Amino acid sequence: MTQTDPLVEIRGLNKYFGSNHVLRDIDFSVARGEVVCVIGPSGSGKSTLLRCVNLLETPQSGTVKVNEQELTDPDCDIDAARRQIGMVFQQFNLFPHHSALDNCTLALTTVLKKKRDEAERIARENLERVGLAEKVDAYPARLSGGQQQRVAIARALSMDPALMLFDEPTSALDPELVGEVLTVMRRLADEGMTMIVVTHEIAFAREVADRVVFMDGGGIVEQGKPSTLLSEPREPRTRDFLKRVL
Ligand code: ADP
Ligand code: MG
């Protein structure tokens, strides 16, 4: 393994739900430290592609490799492989009856078998990283949506992932809370985290992404630098989409 190998390498990926062919022969790689934003209309397959990266969805064909481990290999230890992939969803999916701190320590103590004080140290560090040092003891119901989403990010970071996946992390938030979450994500990107972000926040993609991928109809229609793809798209479908969202 060399540091220049892609962190994520997907080849010939096909996914069907029944007769619905939702991912069509996708080839998709992400370099270490790269930030990729995935945009596209509803139903184009963005979430399914993201969920195939950690095999939350099983593709019918193709290979998914993350950090030199082939998740689609039947012999792959899928739980171990998934541990290096953090995922943040539109709905924060926090454990409602656990404090912010315990939301972050839970997997550390149960899955990684860390000692309680070590788990707490890691959890506090990551809650601080997302600007929530003051809220360690708060329960999700007492936190704003933006704060809950930041806890979800801290929880994912606590596992020390090699890759972070975000599926529309700000879509469920009131507009005034979107900024605080994007700020945390921007900081993560600056720190060199490898990230795949499905988002409708075109301004964020323009500013933070190294590459923007436009999906439509289960395929990657066009991809490139944000300055190029978002300002001078080649494909009519990309142009139409951008006209509608910008
Ligand atoms: P996007 O995230 O771009 O909106 P999705 O990946 O969620 O798109 O969906 C792509 C297609 O797959 C859609 O036609 C959707 O209805 C279908 N689909 C997604 N998840 C499921 C599922 N669990 N079962 C059946 N069909 C699904
Ligand atoms: Mg989606």
Automatic annotation (TrEMBL):
<keyword id="KW-0472">Membrane</keyword>
<feature type="domain" description="ABC transporter">
    <location>
        <begin position="8"/>
        <end position="242"/>
    </location>
</feature>
<dbReference type="InterPro" id="IPR017871">
    <property type="entry name" value="ABC_transporter-like_CS"/>
</dbReference>
<keyword id="KW-1003">Cell membrane</keyword>
<protein>
    <submittedName>
        <fullName>Ral L-amino acid transport system ATP-binding protein</fullName>
        <ecNumber>3.6.3.-</ecNumber>
    </submittedName>
</protein>
<keyword id="KW-0029">Amino-acid transport</keyword>
<keyword id="KW-0067">ATP-binding</keyword>
<dbReference type="GO" id="GO:0005886">
    <property type="term" value="C:plasma membrane"/>
</dbReference>
<dbReference type="InterPro" id="IPR030679">
    <property type="entry name" value="ABC_ATPase_HisP-typ"/>
</dbReference>
<dbReference type="InterPro" id="IPR050086">
    <property type="entry name" value="MetN_ABC_transporter-like"/>
</dbReference>
<dbReference type="GO" id="GO:0005524">
    <property type="term" value="F:ATP binding"/>
</dbReference>
<dbReference type="InterPro" id="IPR027417">
    <property type="entry name" value="P-loop_NTPase"/>
</dbReference>
<dbReference type="InterPro" id="IPR003439">
    <property type="entry name" value="ABC_transporter-like_ATP-bd"/>
</dbReference>
<dbReference type="GO" id="GO:0015424">
    <property type="term" value="F:ABC-type amino acid transporter activity"/>
</dbReference>
<keyword id="KW-0378">Hydrolase</keyword>
<keyword id="KW-0547">Nucleotide-binding</keyword>
<dbReference type="InterPro" id="IPR003593">
    <property type="entry name" value="AAA+_ATPase"/>
</dbReference>
<dbReference type="GO" id="GO:0016887">
    <property type="term" value="F:ATP hydrolysis activity"/>
</dbReference>
<comment type="similarity">
    <text>Belongs to the ABC transporter superfamily.</text>
</comment>
<dbReference type="Pfam" id="PF00005">
    <property type="entry name" value="ABC_tran"/>
</dbReference>
<keyword id="KW-0813">Transport</keyword>
